[in-house]
Structure formats: C-alpha cells, structure tokens
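Help needed: design a sequence for this.
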C-alpha cells in the first residue's frame, strides 16, 4: 500500500512565484514574453509571443526567472494549464504562476500531479473572480501537493508517465520534420521551380537537377518532367498559370441546430477551428464535438471523405487540417477536394502556400476572411499530370507515416490520461499499470503492448546502454583510415546524431567547444569504455603534445546488433556519410551554427550570417568563436547550406 504525504507547494518547491505584472513594451528584437494564453495542452506555444528588449527581459527575470525543470501554471482566465520546462528557456513570463523545482524528479512529479482530477478540483476551489476567473499567488503557495512517502515509488510513477510523453513528443517532432520535408519539396517543384533553375545554371546530371534529394536512378526518371528553362512569364516553359479554384472543388459547411439534442453527440466528427491540428500533425484525429446522422441530414453540414483539406475561413482564419476519415465541418470553414490531375496531398500543401501568400499580402497581420473569390484570385503553376502524379507518389509515404504517428499519439495520450488519475490517487499500483488492457483505450496501434513494456519506452539501464551505443557508433562512423577520433569530434558527432534521430538534446549547453553535454561526454563515454566498445588513447600532434582520442575497442562487435535494437542504423549511416573524416573545426562550426539557427527560428528571426554571428556573440562563452578561422562569414554560410541539405 502506498503511503502518502501532503506538502504545501511553498515547501515542496524551492519557491512559488508569479511573472511580472508590468507590461514591457514590444521590441523589434530581444527575447519573448509569454502569458497564460501561450499555455495549451501542456505545451508552450511561442509562435505569437512578442519580443521585449534585453533590459526588460533581465528586469522581469530578476523576479521570476524560469529554469530547467520548473513548472508553469496559468493563473488568469483558463486556470490550471501547466507546462514543464525541460530545456534552457529563453523567455520571460507575465501573470503566470511559477513553481521553482528543487530537482528534476520533484518537477516531474508536480507537473503530473497538477494534471490529476484531484489537483484540478483543489485548484478550482481556490479560484476567485466572477467575470474572469483567477487564482491568487498566495493560494498557489499554500496549494497541497500529494506525494508518495517513498521517493522510489514517486519516481517510478513519473518515469512511466514521462515515457509516454517522451514517445508522444518524439512522434510529434518526427511529424514536424516529415511535413517540412513535404513542404520543401512542394516549394522546390511548384514555387521556386528548382529543377528548371538548376538546369539553367548548367546542371545536366539528374541527381543535381533534382537537388540531390533522390538516388540517381530515381532522379533520372524525375528530371525529364521539368523544362530546361523559364519562359517570358517566369514559369517553366510549357507550364501555365491556373487559378487555385480550378484545382479544387470547394465545399461549404454547416451547423445542426444546437437546441436539438438528438442532432449532437453522435459518431460523426464535426470540425471547427478549435480542432485544427498543430504544425506537423496534419490530420484532424479528434474533434471537440460530433453530430448524429439526423443532425447531418437536417442541416447544411456536408460529409467529406478521407484526404480532404479543411480550412478555416472566418474567425481564426487560415487554420488547415486534413480529414483522416469521413467527417463534417461548420459553416466557418471550407473543404477542398482535388480535381484531376492534382492529388489530395498537393492540395493540402498548396493550401498552406495560399495561406502564406495571404499573410504576405496582409504584411504579416491577420487577414479577416477567406471567401470563394479568394480561391480564384490566387494562382499556381500548372505542371501537367506526369509531374503531379510523381509528386503524389513521392510524398504519399510521408503523409502515411504522419497519419500513423498521429494515431499512435492519440492512443498514447489516452493511455496516459487513463493511468494518470489512477496512479496519482493510488487506485492502482505501478505493477498493476503494466497489465492495463488495451481494450480500455480507443484505437490501439499494432504491437502497442509490446512497445509499452519493451524497448520503445526505455528503463534507466536501457537508456544508459543506448547512449553508450550512440557514443561507440559515433566513434566508428567518424573514424577514417583507423585514425583516432578526438573528444570534441565525438561530442559534435553525438550532438548531430541525436539531432538527426530526434532524441532529447536538453543536456547540451553553450560551452567553448560548441553544444556540449558534459555529463554525456564523461559518464556515457566512460560507460562505452567500460564495456570495451571504445578505448581512449593518445596521439602526438604537430606541436609534440599528446592529444587524447578514441577508437573502436575489442568488443565493438557487440554494438552492431544494439544499433538495430535501438533503431539507430539510418542515423549512424547518415553521420558517416556526411562527417566521416571531417575536421574538428568544421564539425564545431556546423553544430554551433545549428544551435544558433534553431534559436533564430524559435524567435521568428531571419537566418542570416549577421544574425547567426549576433546570436553567437550574445553568449560570453561563445563570443570568442568568432575570432577563429573556422567561423568566418564564408564558413558560417557554408554551414547553413550544409544544415539545409542534411536536416
């Protein structure tokens, strides 16, 4: 039986604070300021957060600096949305609750406990306000946190829930990458006319014409689809300009009468803008509301099939999603069905491009509405059926994987939400949680039980083994002509491999050698040495100094099957293909520029050499890099190009 303690949050945490109550002025450059409205579904949405000056940022953080493993909570309006900060935050907070965690373990527990029905009820009882609900800071400080007396039980429960969340996050990040790959190909073929422009620049090899995105044999079948030059109209010769409305069938939506109860709560999904998927999700796997057959038959709502693109046209305009199956939608949206020869995935990506154009025409501000005339006012290049068909065949597997990941995430979230209240209340013990029947969870994915209890969700021992495999495989992948691989190259290789594999990079810090995880380098590299997978020796450099380096050791053969076990094969091959034998200086430049590039993108800033140098210079540990020969403008520009090719 679990024995429980109840501790006030002010004692459970190192402190409980709130964000600034002031209103710092918006700035063209600086750091982001977030409020409760940026918390949604246990995620932090920084897209619409505005920038404040560095001085205002520092002033706010004197009172309420957010650090790794702290827990944020919304205090005003929608009270109780929570977020666990797992990284090194670069934002300030306003009118939000901040639980300063004493440790990662306590931060994780508090994060999950605040999501339990018991905690939500307690928080609701402490709210004030009539027109707008809020919870006072004093009530947050006195908030009772229920926690198992045994720390091992507390951490086991948190670890199980974290494993589910980690897999959800991995799938989400994978989907973002897959969607961006599809969008990049769409832009290259149908917006930038890349294959034609590369031929105009002198490219004759099919692989080069296709931007090195395909194997030579595939590129040879694709390159002939693209004209060799642009016409006077700026389009590839032989292509014509077509209004978007000529490519789609536009379907209007409807809403059954809300006062007729038998029209609602059926099994037909009914989409509204609140159901729009986040970036990378693409598909609308669930809707807040559903309707019955009677509701469909007695309203202007229309059923659309799987693969239909739906776009919000009024209210919050320009949100798009794709139907994973038959569904309906309200009158504030349009459904877009492809007309031959274009396919449904082309229409989804073209619709996203249409929204970007509308934003540009509105100079970045919100455009008020989309009408049928909007679809006729914007046009796309007509490429011809062979090109459209080839495009659909190439991106269909990407969308299929996105859909499968989304369905799995829905199942994982339902599993987590089923377990969370039962674990937090002590209704079931951890060993019972491992035999929860999947029949309790909607739409199980194949082999889910095996994955849940096996290697897909790793124990601490398995994580240590996997990370040691990453170190050993990195040494082998980077080694050329049996030369030693220096420690800095190993760490840069580990960073790039984990980035490629979409694994957590939270331990990496801005240190002199670039993105560097000190614990990973010393503890996990040590673990790989202890297993005799790698060995460290020293070589004499040109100056006569003995420099440590790494090479595969006597038991490296044990690593090969483990690479397959942890699904690292493609990432290891990718690392060897792009960085085998490369210098420490080049790998440091690529990894450093990658971190700076991601930070600029998170802040919504343009990725330019000047902005990358400014980002590097903003950190005292990194500023000296700019004096090195491998951080010239030319090398930074080359690194940006390389990153564009490999990620």
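Sure. Designed sequence:
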């Amino acid at each position: 039986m679990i024995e429980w303690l109840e501790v006030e949050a002010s004692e459970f945490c190192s402190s409980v604070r709130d964000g600034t109550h002031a209103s710092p002025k918006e700035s063209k450059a600086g750091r982001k300021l977030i409020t409760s409205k940026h918390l949604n579904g246990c995620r932090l949405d920084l897209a619409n957060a505005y920038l404040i000056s560095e001085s205002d940022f520092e002033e706010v953080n004197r009172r309420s600096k957010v650090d790794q493993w702290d827990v944020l909570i919304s205090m005003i309006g929608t009270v109780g949305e929570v977020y666990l900060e797992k990284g090194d935050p670069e934002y300030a907070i306003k009118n939000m609750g901040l639980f300063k965690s004493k440790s990662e373990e306590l931060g994780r527990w508090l994060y999950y406990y605040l999501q339990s029905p018991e905690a939500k009820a307690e928080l609701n009882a402490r709210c004030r306000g009539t027109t707008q609900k809020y919870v006072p800071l004093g009530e947050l400080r006195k908030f009772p946190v229920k926690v198992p007396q045994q720390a091992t039980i507390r951490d086991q429960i948190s670890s199980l829930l974290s494993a589910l969340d980690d897999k959800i996050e991995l799938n989400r990040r994978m989907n973002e990458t897959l969607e961006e790959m599809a969008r990049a190909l769409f832009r290259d073929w149908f917006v930038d006319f890349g294959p034609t422009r590369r031929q105009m620049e002198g490219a004759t090899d099919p692989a080069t014409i296709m931007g090195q995105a395909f194997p030579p044999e595939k590129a040879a079948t694709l390159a002939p689809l693209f004209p060799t030059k642009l016409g006077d109209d700026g389009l590839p010769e032989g292509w014509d300009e077509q209004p978007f409305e000529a490519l789609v069938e536009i379907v209007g939506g409807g809403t059954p009468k809300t006062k007729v109860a038998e029209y609602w709560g059926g099994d037909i999904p009914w989409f509204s803008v609140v159901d729009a998927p986040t970036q990378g999700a693409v598909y609308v796997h669930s809707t807040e509301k559903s309707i019955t057959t009677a509701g469909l038959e007695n309203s202007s709502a229309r059923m659309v099939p799987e693969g239909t693109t739906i776009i919000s046209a009024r209210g919050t305009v320009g949100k798009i999603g794709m139907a994973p199956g038959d569904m309906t939608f309200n009158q504030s949206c349009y459904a877009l069905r492809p007309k031959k020869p274009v396919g449904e995935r082309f229409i989804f990506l073209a619709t996203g491009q249409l929204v970007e154009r509308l934003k540009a025409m509105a100079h970045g501000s919100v455009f008020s509405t989309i009408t049928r005339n909007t679809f006729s006012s914007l046009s796309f290049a007509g490429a011809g059926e062979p090109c459209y068909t080839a495009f659909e065949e190439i991106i269909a597997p990407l969308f299929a994987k996105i859909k499968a990941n989304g369905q799995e995430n829905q199942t994982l979230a339902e599993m987590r939400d089923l377990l969370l209240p039962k674990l937090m209340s002590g209704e079931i013990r951890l060993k019972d949680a491992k035999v929860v029947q999947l029949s309790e969870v909607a739409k199980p994915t194949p082999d889910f039980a095996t994955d849940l209890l096996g290697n897909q969700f790793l124990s601490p021992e398995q994580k240590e083994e996997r990370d040691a495999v990453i170190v050993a495989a990195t040494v082998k992948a980077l080694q050329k002509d049996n030369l030693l691989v220096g420690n800095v190259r190993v760490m840069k290789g580990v960073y790039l491999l984990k980035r490629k594999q979409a694994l957590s990079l939270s331990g990496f810090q801005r240190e002199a050698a670039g993105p560097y995880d000190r614990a990973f380098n010393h503890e996990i590299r040590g673990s790989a040495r202890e297993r005799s997978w790698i060995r460290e020796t020293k070589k004499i450099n040109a100056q006569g100094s003995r420099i440590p380096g790494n090479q595969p050791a006597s038991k490296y053969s044990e690593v090969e099957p483990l690479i397959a076990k942890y699904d690292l094969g493609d990432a290891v091959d990718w690392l060897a293909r792009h960085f085998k034998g490369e210098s420490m200086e080049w790998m440091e430049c690529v990894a450093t520029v990658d971190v700076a590039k991601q930070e600029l993108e998170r802040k919504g800033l343009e990725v330019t050499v000047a902005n990358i140098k400014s980002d590097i210079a903003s950190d005292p540990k990194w500023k000296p890099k700019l004096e090195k020969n491998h951080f010239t403008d030319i090398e930074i520009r080359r690194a940006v190009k390389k990153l564009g090719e490999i990620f």
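The two ends are 49 Å apart (CA to CA).
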